[in-house]
Design a protein that fits this description.
Number of helices of chain B: 4
Number of strands of chain A: 5
Largest interface: A-B, 21 and 20 residues
Shape of chain A: globular
Helix content of chain B: 10-25%
Strand content of chain B: 25-35%
Helix content of chain A: 40-55%
Order of helices and strands of chain A: HHEEEEHEHH
Distance between the termini of chain B: 20 Å
Radius of gyration of chain A: 17 Å
Shape of chain B: globular
Number of helices of chain A: 5
Largest sheet of chain B: 5 strands, mixed
Structural class of chain B: alpha+beta
Structural class of chain A: alpha+beta
Distance between the termini of chain A: 58 Å
CATH class of chain B: Alpha Beta
CATH architecture of chain B: 4-Layer Sandwich
Strand order of the largest sheet of chain A: 1-2-3-4-5
CATH topology of chain B: Deoxyribonuclease I, Chain A
Number of domains of chain B: 1
Oligomer: heterodimer
Strand order of the largest sheet of chain B: 4-5-6-7-14
């Protein structure tokens, strides 16, 4: 092929340019949970096409925690709302559910750039509530394993 | 009631003041070994099962809880729902809630069943009639009263395949008996003279239609020693404002 008119060289180049995107950052955190717990508790994203006029974003990424030892029990930690055509802004809801967000959308965080997104995600994932949930699920799974 | 109806699984909502451990203990005294399934509940939903039923909690949300039931190699999904009350939300808002939850439950099915038959049952207090938008619309649960239509598995709307549920609850509506629904109200918000409402429903995926035991399916009006109906209406003060429904999958 003689002509390459694309703006990136290869996958590596593409990955480099997408590393600060909210989806990539969230995906990293989802992957980390499994690594940090020997996959006793791991993360799983669920994508929902938003059909609500209440929400000005088109895609909901539900961050679920999965516990394999409990027959793949799932619990939602947060929901990130984004638009496929733009990186930012994104909105995050916590302690809510998709159906509740569809009726009254009151995001806990609205992030306009990478820094505010990382700060928000850090605040959520290191909160006492999330830590307590992970500890509880880990302990139940560990009890079953023993 | 659990023993008399030879139940294997009991789903209850509005359980804040219910002594579940007391029920389990009382069943034990009758040589029945039962358990409650919960991990980190968010709603007032409880599911009790005989200890020989292989069940695990899959999701616990604010308006529903989902359980996996294992039978040999097969996995079934049981969703128990409790949707907002008409006292709290207008019907159009309740429809929207049902439509949005139906998307979440369908996502779960896609994940678990993938290309195979969807083997899900939804039971509970929908706080919507079987003909409401939330229950019967293709945008919601797409639950039909027609067996022949449901057996086609889906209908295409706007190029998209919309999977059916079959809703056997239609059979109980307006039956030639005093009790014609599971909820009684003589002051309808729109002055309709309905009186008996079928807010408590069972929606089954087409996979279960031929295994549904029509002879067992009914609204429970009492036990041998206690009647839930007094003066032709539900005994709210002595029992509950909803009547239970029993069904069997053969």
């Amino acid at each position: 092929m003689e002509r390459d008119l694309w703006g990136f060289k290869n996958v590596k180049d593409l990955e480099k340019s997408t590393k600060d995107m909210p989806d990539t950052i969230l995906k990293e955190q989802i992957a980390l949970l499994g690594e940090k717990t020997n996959f006793i508790v791991y993360g799983k994203p669920v994508f929902i096409k938003v059909n609500s006029q209440e929400i000005e974003y088109k895609v909901a990424t539900v961050f679920n925690v999965v516990v394999q030892a409990l027959d793949n029990y799932e619990k939602t930690i947060l929901i990130m709302y984004s638009n496929p055509e733009t990186e930012y802004p994104v909105a995050i809801t916590v302690n809510s559910s998709y159906e509740e967000d569809c009726e009254m959308f009151v995001p806990s965080y609205t992030c306009k750039d990478k820094n505010s997104f990382e700060t928000a995600i850090k605040e959520i994932l290191s909160s006492d509530k999330v830590l307590g949930l992970i500890q509880m699920l880990y302990s139940k799974a560990a009890m079953l394993a023993s | 009631m659990i023993v008399e109806n030879e139940a294997d699984i009991v789903a209850i909502v509005e359980t804040e003041n219910l002594d579940v451990q007391g029920i389990i203990h009382s069943l034990k005294l009758q040589s029945q070994d039962w358990q409650v399934s919960e991990i980190c509940p968010e709603a007032d939903i409880k599911v009790l099962t005989r200890s020989n039923v292989h069940i695990s909690v899959h999701r616990e949300d604010k308006n529903f809880a989902t359980y996996k039931i294992f039978e040999g190699e097969e996995v079934f999904l049981l969703h128990v729902v409790h949707f907002p009350s008409p006292l709290r939300l207008e019907e159009c808002a309740r429809d929207m809630r049902a439509i949005n939850i139906s998307h979440v439950l369908r996502k779960m099915e896609e994940d678990i069943f993938q290309k195979t038959d969807y083997k899900s049952i939804i039971v509970g207090d929908f706080n919507l009639q079987p003909y409401s938008q939330g229950i019967s619309s293709v945008h919601g649960f797409n639950a039909t009263m027609s067996i022949s239509k449901a057996k086609k598995v889906f209908r295409k709307v706007g190029g998209e395949q919309k999977r059916f549920y079959f809703n056997p609850t239609w059979k109980l509506m307006g039956d030639n008996r005093n009790v014609q629904g599971t909820y009684y109200n003589n002051s309808d918000q729109q002055d309709k003279s309905i009186f008996w409402y079928s807010f408590d429903e069972i929606l089954i995926r087409p996979y279960f239609i031929d295994r549904f035991n029509w002879d067992y399916f009914e609204i429970v009006e009492g036990t041998a020693s206690y009647k839930f109906i007094r003066n032709d209406v539900i005994d709210k003060s002595g029992y509950s404002d909803h009547l239970p429904i029993k069904f069997e999958i053969l």
